[in-house]
Amino acid sequence: MDNPGLMNRMEGSDAAAVQRALAGDRDAFRVLVDRHSRSLFRLAFRMTGNEHDAEEVVQETFLRAYRRLSKFESRANFGTWLYRIGINCSLDFRRSRMRHEEHREPDDAEGNPAVQQLASEAPAPDRVVFSGQVGARVEQAMSELSDVERSAFVLRHFEGLSIEEIGKALGLRVSATKNSIFRAVQKLRRALEPMVSTTR
Fold it and tell me: What is the fold of 144-200?
């Protein structure tokens, strides 16, 4: 986002790729997948809390996007449009998982928190953030945010989207977007305050 010229070219080429895909060019949609899959995975990972779920969300997002491609308006930002679908897929996945866990035995071998499943010989930055006691507290606090708060917070503080872009992705007005982010930050700050105070 530091290079407006590059972003404009990408948006233009995205729109062109969409038009080619709508005309039956399968390779054109594959270009869109390759271009946006990494950022979409980051978003899905931060929304769901683990890689396996994030991969499923990414697949479902691109599937929904392909089915709805005719509804994409060429003057819109394809990345923002895709984020909106990705957020909805992530929230649907989270709700489905929560319903499933409500009917699962507490001692299920697969019932470990997502944070504990992120060990790796060469941990990526995301894994480092979501590790240890602080990571567990952050994940717990994130899980207690409302869907809108979590979505707005992730898009703002992890993906670096502007208030306007987040509003478009979530279908919110600017004031509602700002309030959602503010509430999320306040809740996370309160959740982490006990840990911060013990290190002083």
Answer: Arc Repressor Mutant, subunit A (1.10.10)
> pTM for the complete prediction?
0.71
Place of tokens 């992730």: 154
- Tell me which residue has tokens 């503080």: 157
Same fold, 1-111 and 144-200: no
- Looking up tokens 């470990």 gives 112
Instruction: Return the structure tokens found at 27.
Output: 């390779």
Contact 159, 42 (CB under 8 A): yes
CB 84 within 8 A of CB 171: yes
3-state secondary structure 102-141: HCCCCCCCCCCCHHHHCCCCCCCHHHHHCCHHHHHHHHHH
Categorize the per-residue pLDDT at 78 as very low, low, confident or very high, splitting at 50, 70 and 90: very high
Distance between start and end Cα atoms, the chain: 36
Domain boundaries of the chain, sorted by first residue: 1-111, 144-200
What is the token pair recorded at 1? 């986002």
Per-residue pLDDT averaged across 113-135, rounded? 48
Q: Which amino acid is at 134?
A: V
